[in-house]
Amino acid sequence: MVTESKHLELELDDKRYIWHPFTQMKDYVKEKPLIIERGKGSFLWDIYGNKYLDGISSLWVTVHGHCREEITQAITEQVKKVSHTTLLGLSHPPAIELAKRLAQITPKGLNRVFYSDSGATAVEIALKMAFQYWLQEPNGCSDKKKFVSLKNAYHGDTVGAVSVGGIDLFHKTYQPMLFDSLKGESPYCYRCNLGKTYPSCDFGCLTQIEEVIKKHHHETSALIIEPLVQGASGMLVSPPGYLKGIRELCTRYNILMIADEVAVGFGRTGKMFACEHEDVAPDILTLGKGITGGYLPLAATITTDEIYNAFLGEYDEFKTFFHGHTYTGNPVACAAALASLDVFEKDRTIIELQKKIEFLEKGLKRFWDLKHVGDVRQKGFMVGIELVSNRDSKETFPLHNKTGIKVIMEARKRGVILRPLGDVIVLMPSLSITLQELDELLKVTFDSIRSVTTVNCKL
Question: CATH classification of 70-346, choosing from 3.40.640.10, 2.40.160.210, 3.30.2010.10, 1.10.3720.10?
Answer without folding.
Answer: 3.40.640.10
